[in-house]
Amino acid sequence: MNAVSLGPLVLAADRFAVVLAIFVFLIVTGIMARKVDDRFNAWSWWAFLGGIIGARLGHVLINMESFVADPLRIFAVWQGGFYWPTGAAAVIVSLLVMLPTGRQRLWAALPLALSLIVWNTTWQLTGGTDPLAVPDQVFETLEGNGYRLEERKGTPQVVNLWATWCPPCRREMPMMADIAASTDDVTFVFANQGEGRTAIQRYLAASGLSLDTILVDQFSDLSRFYSAPGLPATLFIDADGVLQHAHLGEISREVLVEKIENLRTSISPSGDTRP
Length: 275
Hints:
The protein is built from nine helices and nine strands. It has 275 residues and is of the alpha/beta class.
């Protein structure tokens, strides 16, 4: 699983690339404010905030139906969900309004281009997903039965690595349970990491959640196998049992639905997985 550790902070590779690009943008514009024109300092912050807000609002508008039932989730930016064309439009507007001369706008192209290069290079170096096949291992379910992910080949699987002590795991669990209950062609597996039956049963009773397949992975074998540096982690496994995508951290409803749809499109109408 591709992630970057900064001390105790663990970021998914795609988010790290964005953070690094923003850092470069602010540093370069700060230097330009001292050396070229002090108006670059104010513009950089307006461009940064406008880009983030614009990208988030674009995502919300595109997925409005998903946000109507829970409008406060609009502010849950840690879940991800940004539409970059509207973010880029907001940056361009800030440039046109705050930097009126052609010389200023030409200079503004420098930090924008550098941040784009840094983002793309970082993502190319740290992003991507290793196409691991599911482990040939028997796991124990909450009911005490044996369960092998390998035996579920032929049907795409979403495997959620979680723990009852993990706040983002608890936040996303009701949403994931809701989608799992309404999805017939994809198997959902909730693999608890490092806890015993008593802790899991106590959490389920208190939360009122009903989950079909819960694995008791007391030694966190799945986390080690997929190199998950933290929880929650959601694994999207195709019908051949091969990992297609791994999402580290709390996942939004929109991203979960999108990745499930990607798993569906990897299956041809005849039932064979597409290359």
